[in-house]
Each structure stands twice: as structure tokens, then as C-alpha cells.
Amino acid sequence: MSLKPIRSLTADDLGIGIVAATAGHASNRPDEPEVGIEDPLAVEALWLLERFGGIIYTGPPGTGKSWTANKVAKALTGDHAGRVRYVQFHPSYQYEDFMQGFRPRRGGFEMEDGHFVSMCKAAQEDPKHKYVLVIDELSRGDCGRIFGEALTYLETTKRGLPFKLASGEEISVPSNLVILATMNPLDRGVDEVDAAFGRRFAQVLMEPSRNALQQFMEISELPESLAEGLLRFFDFVNKRARTNPHAAVGHVFFRDVNDADSLRAVWEYQLRFLLEKAFRLDQQGFREVQGRWQAIFPPEEAESDEEAMAQASGGGQIDAEQS
């Protein structure tokens, strides 16, 4: 009796792989109303995509870059999960992961399409609909190495022109494939991104937004005294960021804050580390920022917070000395 090979299923075929895992990627609140095609975010994206090969949302942490890319992707595709794919670059990300490369299979190796080539082929087979590839942390990868020969053909004037991959296979980048990316302008790889995408992609600057922060606080009904103090801190630290860009604090950090405890948690588990790093060569500057943070809370609470911060800082110093 001859045995015929059974079709092998991947984790993605079963709906439990990376595609399924990232279906809601970049959305801080999956239950939020979706952005429609007439939303200003989508209108801006469509206008830019008529003139550029893609869009890079750039800005400091907590400014909604990934959220915006995700919402625009859903708007452009009618929230069709099969036409959106999410990828995150990192220092070890390779051409073989993104474009095409050999994968180990039983009995040897097999050439397999990466995310980009897969999306190109899917878009070519369905030219009436838009397909969107969202690249998070674009500046953390070596873009020239990852895109390879495809880099030139991302331009709007070169869409549809055939070119050969390293394997010798001929493909083209269809005009209905949209590329949205996010990056932190202070990452080490930004110069490489600028060189590769400077004239090919539009860059949309995402900055800390006082108005967005106020909206978050109104929705969460944060007590007025805390809200006023938080706004003062937000203004102060982002004013300092004009001369120390690493100190910029985005509004999204405070998205889920609704009381004093949740506000303290933002400092204790996120902001403290970001700002200590930003002011590592300016201890006086950090103390000023820390003082502004403590001023958000009533005096008696601020005193207990100050003691806790001092103990935490002292413990960290002892640990560092012992290590």
C-alpha cells in the first residue's frame, strides 16, 4: 500500500500562530470603535499613499504610533484580518525572515516566502482590495539588509515593475500593497532608516498631546486635583524634552489612569525608568522632574511617596555597589 503525504498544517493554518496572535496587535483597547475610511487618520493616509511608497509614524514612546498604524490598517482594509499582517523588526531580523529564505523541513530545507513576499503575492491575486503590512519598530532592524533588492521598488513610480529575488524568482510590488511603519526617532538605527526611506516614505510626527491626555482624564473621571497636577507635570517634562529629547513622555502612558493608585503605578513601573535613563547624566534634572511628579499628590501622600522613592533609589544603589 502506497502512502500519500498528508498536507502539513502550520500553526497559522490552525489559527494559533503568529498571524492569529497579532490580530489585535498595537491596539491598547480592542473594544474601541474602529476608524472608518472617512476618519481623518484614514483620509490623511490615503492622501499620503498617493504620493509616497508608505508611511512611517515616528515619535517618542507613548504617543500612539502603533495604535494609529493599527487603526489605519483596519480602515484601509475594512477590518479584514486576512488583508493585514503585522511584523516587528529587531536587530537579528534577516532578509530570509522578511523576503524569502530556506526553512528546515523533514529531510532537508525548503524555500519559503517571508512576510513581505507573501503579502505581495496575496495583493497581486486580489487587485481590487488594499493589503497592509504594518512594520513595528522599523528602526531596530537593518532595513537595507532586510528589504534587499525590494527597497527600490517600494516607490510609487516603480510599483508593478518586475525584479528578481536572491533566489532568482521574479516578483513585483503591487500598487495595492500598503506599508505602514512605526519608529522611535531616537533609536540608533534611525540614520539607516532615513537613508533607505527618506525620499520613498512619508513621515508623520506623533508628539505628546495635551488634548489627548485631557480626553483620557475626562473619560476615566480622574479627580480634578490629580488631573490638574498631572497636566502640570506633563507640560513640565515635555518642555524639558525640548533640550533633552529622551525625556519626552507621551499621553498614552496615562490612558488607563483613573485614581491615585493607578497614577502612581505609571511612575513606579514605567516613567521612573524612562526618565532615570533620560537624565542619567543630569541628576539634578531628574530630581526636578521627580519633584514635579510628587507635587501631583496631596502633601501627606507626596511625603510617603518621597520616602518610598528614596528607599528604592538607595536599594538600587546598594545593589549596584554589591554587584
Overall average pLDDT: 86
CATH topology of the largest domain: Rossmann fold
**Count of structural domains:** 2
Order of helices and strands: HHEHEHEEHEHEEEHEHHHHH
CATH classification, class level of the largest domain: Alpha Beta
Distance between the termini: 66 Å
Query: Low-confidence runs (pLDDT<50, min 5 residues)?
Result: 1-31, 315-323
- Beta-strand segment tally: 9
Q: Classify the beta-strand content into a percent band.
A: 5-15%
Task: Name the strands of the widest sheet in spatial order.
Answer: 2-5-8-1-9
Amount of helix: 40-55%
- Structural class of the secondary structure composition? alpha/beta
Largest sheet: 5 strands, parallel
Subunit organisation of the chains: single chain
What's the helix count? 12
Task: Please tell me about this protein's structure.
The longest helix has 24 residues. The protein is built from twelve helices and nine strands. The N terminus and C terminus are likely disordered. It folds into two domains: 188 residues, Rossmann fold, CATH 3.40.50; 113 residues, no CATH class. The strands form three sheets. It has a five-stranded parallel beta sheet. A two-stranded antiparallel sheet has the order 3-4. It has a two-stranded antiparallel sheet with strand order 6-7. Helix 2 packs across helix 3 and helix 10 runs antiparallel to helix 11. It is 43% helix and 14% strand. By secondary structure, the chain is an alpha/beta fold.
